[in-house]
Design goal:
single chain, alpha/beta, Rossmann fold, 6 helices, 7 strands
């Protein structure tokens, strides 16, 4: 069985990246193999986790490019192509990607978002769900398109909102669900790519 070469983009602690790496390591038939973890922040804690798992890493500091987002993305794209990446998983990558980059990777890039899309695109999703009086929140894995958090949904998981929940407690309770959902959704995405 062919395994897709996976690149994971992070900006911070990399807990979803770590969940993906653990799922890949635990299953010899997993349809992806990690070839690169890239971060826009050189101090991202997830880079050390990736290095400990023997996955090549690269840090490209977006701040060095000022407001020129495409120049940053061209550097990132070069690294992804050098790695041979065939699919990208955004795992807490806190940059809105330009249409230039999204178009280059369309149909081969997925993201995990901490809400039940199409509700609460963008930031502060847990607080927005609490403020709206929702009785559940959750997470969604979707294909990345030019519109922020607008791509086709691959998979979702629900988490109840409990009395007294804050954005922080809800986020903390949602995280283990994300760690379970993302590896399963990545399998689905890989299968779709391998069928084409």
């Amino acid at each position: 069985m062919r395994r897709l070469k996976l690149a994971i983009l992070i900006s911070g602690r990399g807990s979803n990246m770590e969940a993906l790496l653990k799922a890949i390591a635990a299953d010899p038939d997993y349809p992806a193999v990690a070839v690169l973890v890239a971060s826009n922040r050189p101090d991202a804690a997830g880079l050390k986790i990736a290095e400990a798992a023997d996955v090549p890493t690269v840090a490209i500091d977006h701040r060095a490019y000022g407001k020129d987002r495409v120049a940053f993305e061209k550097e990132l794209d070069d690294e992804l192509r050098r790695s041979g990446a065939e699919i990208i998983a955004l795992a807490g990558f806190m940059r809105v990607l330009t249409p230039w980059f999204v178009t280059r990777w369309e149909g081969r890039m997925i993201n995990i978002h901490p809400s039940l899309l199409p509700k609460y695109k963008g930031l502060d999703t847990q607080q927005r769900a609490i403020d709206a009086g929702d009785n559940e929140a959750g997470c969604t894995v979707h294909w990345v398109t030019s519109g922020v958090d607008e791509g086709e949904i691959i998979a979702q998981a629900r988490v109840p909102i409990l009395p007294g929940d804050t954005a922080d407690t809800l986020a903390a309770r949602t995280l283990p669900t994300e760690h379970k959902l993302y590896p399963e959704a990545l399998k689905i995405a890989c299968a779709k790519i391998l069928q084409t």
